[in-house]
Amino acid sequence: MTAHLVDRDAAQTYLRLIEARDHRAAVAHVIRLLETGFAPGDIIHEVLIPTQRAIGEAWLDGRLSVAEEHAATAITESALGALFARANYPSDRGHVIAACAEGDWHALAPRMLAELLRTRRWRVTLVGASVPASSLAAMAAEAPGTAIALSCSQVENLGGAVRSIAAAHQLGLPTLVGGAAVSAERAALIGADGWARDHHGADEVLSRWRDEGPPPLATTPAMEPYRAVSAVAPGIVADAMEAAGLGPDDDLFPLHRGPLAQSTLMTLVVTAAIAVSIDDETAFTDIGDYARRAWARDDLAPSALAAALAHASSELRPVDRATVDLLATFAP
Hints:
Elements: H1 8-19, H2 23-36, H3 40-60, H4 66-83, E1 95-100, H5 108-119, E2 123-128, H6 133-142, E3 147-151, H7 158-170, E4 175-178, H8 184-189, E5 194-195, H9 199-212, H10 224-243, H11 258-278, H12 282-285, H13 288-296, H14 302-316, H15 321-327
Parallel strand pairs: 1-2, 1-3, 3-4, 4-5
Helix pairs in contact: 1-2, 1-3, 2-4, 3-4, 6-7, 10-11, 10-14, 11-13, 11-15, 14-15
């Protein structure tokens, strides 16, 4: 059984304040926890992270709008800033560049990691959300460091993670990965040099690399199916939505629902290609529940998703048969 250092009521109180969009009170609550004597890491892991997960679930279930979810995240970003506003840690253990994988816009996770690594005396350059691999490499070349710490929150961004890792490797820099989309096994499949569940693990890996030297750099996968499918997927997915009677002009499909439903189909297609490319079918099966829930939250029938997926598969078969075969295993 996991020991909780911060009282569960503290997390519930923070969640209630977030749901009420009481920015001032929510930040004040976090500061009181800090002043009571709880460590920033414990507050992050037992209050902020569980709250953000609950907010994400509420959005996926349709209980929160995109605007409400973004407002909640903004409060947590302020609370995180307040936690470390007065911090003045030495930074004498090495330099780490923390970033989201290319295409991943969930910037809160690497920011939390950056702040926590700073408490362990690492100098961290945080570059945030969806950093193009070429831009990440350019920064790393100008400010060499011990490693790049890469966060990947969604499986459809694993292709971007591979590009980021390959760019780091061209500079001779090892890459540590983490995030909801990456397990230790999957990290190895995408060519990462290390994996960490949290900042404790990240500190351990980075310390080893600093003290013992970087490991031999792993080989990144070629990602040919992913490259081929992602090049044509936007047009094919748009056509599939139209063919299934879900075009923006159709009465069944109000325009405001379009982006989420179409992105759900895109996620299925691209993730299937990624799974084939890294030889990890679980990368595709892991998103099944998300895809069904995202589709259902807009009151769209499973049969409509099945029809759109069938049309997309027929168009993709000449591009990559293995991707289409994997798509066929998905049950809307």
